[in-house]
Structure formats: C-alpha cells, structure tokens
Design a protein that fits this description.
The chain has helices at residues 7-14, 18-26, 44-58, 63-75, 80-109, 113-138, and strands at residues 33-34, 40-41. Helices cover 73% and strands 3% of the residues. The longest helix is centred in the last third of the chain and has 30 residues, at 80-109. By secondary structure, it is mainly alpha-helical. This is MerR family transcriptional regulator. InterPro entries: DNA-bd_dom_put_sf (IPR009061), MerR-type_HTH_dom (IPR000551), MerR_fam (IPR047057). Residues 4-72 form the HTH merR-type domain. Keywords: DNA-binding.
Length: 139
Amino acid sequence: MGKAYRIGELAEVTNVSKRTIDYYSQIGLLQPLRTDSNYRLYDEETIHVLGLIEHYKKLNMPLHEIKSVIELVKLKSTENEHVEKYVDQIAELMKHLEAEIKEIKPIMESLNDKQKELLLNKVSPQGMTLAHSLLLLFG
C-alpha cells in the first residue's frame, strides 16, 4: 500500500481541509481504509485523486461529474463500454466548457485589445494542448 495518511496528515500534505476530505469521503470521491480502531487511512493514490479533483474544480466541473471521471481513470480499462463512457464524460465536459465560453463571450467583447491579448495568451497553450489531444484521440 505504501505510506498511509490519517486525515490530518493528508490535509497537511495536500493543503485541502480535513472537512473537505471528509466530505469527499462521504460522497465517494475518496475511498479511505478503516483500521481496527476505525481510523480512516488514505493511501498515496489519494493525493493524486485530490489533485485531479482540484484540477476539475478549477474547470468548474460539478462534483458528480468529477466522481465519474475519477472512477473511469481508476478502472484503467480498455473495455469498450468503459472507453465509451469515458468519451461520453469528455463530451459532457466539452459541452460544459462550451457553455462557459458562451457566458464569457460578452465580457470578452467588452475588453480592450490589450486585456483580450493577455487573456488569450493564458488560454492559448491549453487550447493548443486540448486540440492536439483531441486530434490524437479522434484523428
């Protein structure tokens, strides 16, 4: 199993509050192991999962969608139904991002050229990476 963390240790290592870790455990995003004395222990993979959760939260992805994506990532399976489900999740995320873009478009149009350029420079590398990844996946 590797190193095991109690909730306080995990909170300190990941800079995520104990309350948040507890909530994620309650809704099934995290799967702690229980000791004989009923302490919750979290493995090294939990640190990675918390990183994924934070990443998807920054993309404004709802927790129930994050949970589905994490479950699929954990499967690491190439069975058709799992691949299809994962692609469906990607499609849902893309729809969500498209809606976000539609909401921000009027705000972008009100910015001056310098402000627009600064924002586009932040988005361009990620956009190119996403486009490249989609081409590899579907190309």
